[in-house]
Amino acid sequence: MSLSQVLNVCPKGASLVAATGRRNVGRISTLLLSSSVGQQCSANASSNSVLLSADPQVFSVNGTSNSRTMSTRCVTVDNINPAIKLMEYAVRGPLVIRAGVIEKELEQGAKKPFTEVIRANIGDCHAMGQQPITFLRQVLGLVSYPPLFDDKSIPEDAKQRARDILKGCKGGSVGSYTDSNGIEVIRQHVAQYIQDRDGGIPSDPANIILSAGASGGIKVLMSLLRCPIDGKKPGVMIPIPQYPLYSATIAEFEMEQCGYYLDEANKWGLDITELKRSLAEAKTKCAPRILVVINPGNPTGQVLSKENIQEIIKFAHQEKLVLFADEVYQDNVYEKGSQFHSFKKVLMEMGAPYNTMELCSFMSCS
């Protein structure tokens, strides 16, 4: 059967990936994938047969007899991971889907009392017109396409940073495989940034892990602590309101959500009394393991005082909780009199026994 015959037999709208067999050049394997129905089609040139599966039935078609057999689907809503079905990620939920539909309608000329949709579901600065930092784009361009080093319009500081990065890459290429925790030279740069931010308190590159955004790092570390303790689900204490990454990941990992409420009347402050109440309630149904603190707050925007952070650290130490300090918005402090204090700096300044407790802090360049 030719490739064109395979395409004619396979379902319309699927996308094609073709590859030769390992050493048998006479064998052509094709895989057709559809995100909606999971359609699959494979062809073997030597046997002149095609296997094609489509929703909701599986058909086996032979090139000569054209006989068909029927079977049910292998993957259904009933037999997938049940935890996935419990996940809710509000910032990408029904409102976002509806916004996409409305945008399509506007593109097709539909008449509405507005001309555009402003997506305020998530902090997508570039989508709202903020200009990207030129230095970052220049460095990315240079390491991705080294001939740009000859471009005189690109400043020398960007070129030097790109040289440093390429020197730290195997083969001098960003396309090479990296260490599991990220390119070492970049981790060194991150450690230096943290050390400068924290007034000279040492930061070890070996303790830095690079991830695809803070969300990726948060999920990796939560996965380490998802195992039950004495037959109880592991619990995660999260602020309410919170960024829905946490509630979604808790559901995905089959952990227990333990919410503590921020004080709206006190500028969304974090009260230790509320932490104690939440923990006591959590212990009746799970084994609390993680205390998540978002500072500056997301979506509430509050900035914790140094004294408040010290109280939280003492609480986590006493209750043997792993501290997750989500500090993604540390550079977004604007109110006069407000100041960002990193959990790492405060913890180290407090000395023993607090400076040896487990702390996972998160930052993102986005």
From TrEMBL:
Enzyme Commission number(s): 2.6.1.2
Enzyme class: transferase
Pathway assigned to this chain's UniProt record: Amino-acid degradation; L-alanine degradation via transaminase pathway; pyruvate from L-alanine: step 1/1
Entries under Pfam families matching the protein: Aminotran_1_2
Entry's localization field: Cytoplasm
Record GO biological process: L-alanine catabolic process
Cofactor entry: pyridoxal 5'-phosphate
GO cellular component: cytoplasm
Annotated Gene3D superfamilies: 1.10.287.1970, Aspartate Aminotransferase, domain 1, Type I PLP-dependent aspartate aminotransferase-like (Major domain)
Assigned keywords, A-Z: Acetylation, Aminotransferase, Cytoplasm, Phosphoprotein, Pyridoxal phosphate, Transferase
InterPro entries the record matches: ALAT1/2-like (IPR045088), Aminotransferase_I/II_large (IPR004839), PyrdxlP-dep_Trfase (IPR015424), PyrdxlP-dep_Trfase_major (IPR015421), PyrdxlP-dep_Trfase_small (IPR015422)
Major localization class: cytoplasm
GO MF annotations, alphabetized: L-alanine:2-oxoglutarate aminotransferase activity; pyridoxal phosphate binding
Aminotransferase class I/classII large domain location: 138-339
PANTHER family: ALANINE AMINOTRANSFERASE (PTHR11751), ALANINE TRANSAMINASE (PTHR11751:SF29)
Protein name (Swiss-Prot/TrEMBL): Alanine aminotransferase 1
Lineage, uppermost ranks: Eukaryota, Metazoa, Ecdysozoa, Arthropoda, Hexapoda
